[in-house]
Amino acid sequence: MGTDIHPDGTSVPSAHARPDGRPDVEARRRRTFAVISHPDAGKSTLTEALALHAEVISAAGAVHGKGGRKGVTSDWMDMERERGISVTSAVLQFSYRDHVINLLDTPGHGDFSEDTYRVLAAVDAAVMLLDAARGLEPQTLKLFDVCRARGVPVLTFVNKWDRPGRDPLELVDEVEQRIGLRPMPITWPVGIAGDFHGLVERADGSMRRFTRAAHGASKAAEEILDPDRAAAEEGVDWERATEELELLGEIGADFDPEPFHAGTATPVMFGAALSNIGVARLLDALVDLAPPPTPRPSATGDRRPIDSPFSGLVFKVQASMDKSHRDRVAFVRICSGRFERGMVLTHDATGRPFATKYAQAMFGRDRSTIEEAYPGDIVGLVNATALRPGDTLWAEKPVTFPTIPSFAPEHFSVARVADASKTKQFRKGIEQLDSEGVIQVLSSDLRGDQAPVLAAVGPLQFEVVSARLSDEFSAPIKLERLDYTLARRTDAAGAEKLRGSVGIEVLTRRTDGELLALFPHKWRLQAVVQNQPGLTLEPLIAEG
Ligand code: GDP
């Protein structure tokens, strides 16, 4: 039986380690998901509330601990310590109703980066967290785009219902109108945002009434009322809720698993993470409605059955900048088979063997060993210098999973070596970081390879590149921000026509040779589209 380190520091028996666990049986118990949201919608609060309701069995990385709130702060990287943010992708594992739930953190806020998107390649579902007063916000929309492109089923949780907010019908309508996801509410609020009494369970019409808990300290007290009692005691609020539900029933918003799993409809729930309201309902929905790991399609289109020998997808590689942990951890999502520490896998990209002696759950500075894991689980492989995001690892039977696409960069900087005698190290470092997927490197004949353009989805990526070039390659750099905010894929003809246009530049992305046209803003792009209608200018995946 393996052990994991509980957030309070004690060891607990690992839920991975069930004797004779069959991959298909274990996979059915797994739910692997991420929360997509805009900063301040309440992701950290919800994560903590989920952990409160479920039993935390292991944590890889850490839960953000912000503003002195009790959390599990990772101090793995110097930069993290200085800024008080978590750069490492956290994976938190809970057990709930005999299920194992893996919650993958999508780094956001200032640390929004390509990794944020890559996490969505490793989940089977996403929870779209909305602030009741704000509805859909820009970062949520970007992340949703990636879910849509990948066909990830989305559950919607409308948060902060304890505060004044928008009308529930208006919120679900916004989801349908703006992103084309058909809402299928499974709970509905009794009482307007800010004067919230409880939730109607749509399936049986009962009401769960809450008494608010003090600031996330404990679970909110609750009682279940049958519809007659709810009508008698809740009066106009109950009438309003049931009328709204009838209206929704008429437009066919009943729960249907098929469109949900296909990513065209979303079950919607309401709650307040801070008061632990609706949080258990969300866990129940994850267990009852969200899909378990299913056979993953390979690059050739056929699907690797869950009970085939081990296969996994590297979705993130974290290089430690902490001097005492100068190593590289690859986060692997298990797609099929049973993982046992010590097994020797094949790294598909190179055909080389990869020993997994150092398979671990990352936990801040402490790392606990993972002995076994199953489809849906995440394993951290230490000293994984050869592994890149998008790589496949397999045992016995070869498979190649499709690589993770590069996402639309919105920040661009020219990098130059600060000390000309370090030019060789600089080139080598840039090449290394490009191949690791830390940053996208763009170049052109005009600029030469002494001054490549670095492209990022979040500005933190530049800081990571700077720090690593300086620490690992002894090649400190100077960065010059460029004014572009938008990239479009073009072709040779397009590049030719755009050459010389004021404020526009065409560069080649080194990893895949794509030609990217960079624009300062969308109006400049619109002007080009209007004036030169035949030009190839395709959007890249996920942009605002
Ligand atoms: P994140 O940026 O998405 O991780 O958001 P946080 O979890 O840090 O929450 C942002 C702010 O919203 C904090 O001040 C929280 O206390 C507050 N908050 C989160 N959930 C709720 C909620 O359900 N009700 C209320 N009133 N505030 C909330």
UniProtKB/TrEMBL annotation:
GTP binds at residues 105-109. Residues 1-26 are annotated as: Disordered. Its main location: cytoplasm. InterPro entries: EF-G-like_DII, EFG_III/V, G_TR_CS, P-loop_NTPase, PrfC, RF3_C, RF3_dom_3_sf, RF3_GTP-bd. Keywords: Cytoplasm, GTP-binding, Nucleotide-binding, Protein biosynthesis. Residues 28-294 form the Tr-type G domain. Residues 17-26 have a biased composition (Basic and acidic residues). It comes from the Bacteria. It is found in: Cytoplasm. Belongs to the TRAFAC class translation factor GTPase superfamily. Classic translation factor GTPase family. PrfC subfamily. Increases the formation of ribosomal termination complexes and stimulates activities of RF-1 and RF-2. It binds guanine nucleotides and has strong preference for UGA stop codons. It may interact directly with the ribosome. The stimulation of RF-1 and RF-2 is significantly reduced by GTP and GDP, but not by GMP. This is Peptide chain release factor 3.
